[in-house]
Amino acid sequence: MNNINIKKLIEYPKTGIISKDIFKSKSENISLFCMAAGSELSEHTSTKKAFVYVIEGEGIFNLGNKRIKMNPGILISMKNNEVHSLKAIKNTSFILILT
After folding, report:
1. For labelling alongside 48, which of 1, 23, 27, 95 has CA 20 to 30 A away?
2. CATH number of the domain residue 23 falls in
3. In whole angstroms, what is the distance from residue 62 CA to residue 73 CA?
4. pLDDT above 70 covers what percent of the chain?
């Protein structure tokens, strides 16, 4: 992975979510998620520490007891095993980095 134009990889489904692996190794994963407006990811956890960087759109990210607005430029940090969920209000894309 030398040079990737993330904006060119963004494509929204009519419903649901598209995810694309950008980089994968034993210790790190970087993925692009594109969520259609109204799509949701129910409560779940990750065994790894994670970062979510919002590229475009609007949504709500629930992290434990916190409700975080997902707007372009927002960076969300999560500890491993932290319960989270999210909902796209508009078409929303974000990068997920697991470390």
Report:
1. 1
2. 2.60.120.10
3. 17
4. 99
Residue 50 lies in a domain: yes
Q: What is the mean pLDDT of the chain?
A: 96
Structurally, the chain folds into a number of domains equal to: 1
Confirm whether 20 is domain-assigned. Answer: yes
pLDDT at residue 55, as a whole number: 98
Q: Quick one: pLDDT band at residue 1, thresholds 50, 70, 90?
A: low
Q: Could you give the CA distance from residue 83 to residue 72 in angstroms, rounded to a whole number?
A: 22
Please choose, from the candidates 58, 17, 10, 20, the residue with its C-alpha nearest in 3D space to the C-alpha of residue 35.
17
Q: Which of 55, 53, 79 is nearest to 66 (CA)?
A: 79
On whether residue 41 sits in a domain, the answer given is yes
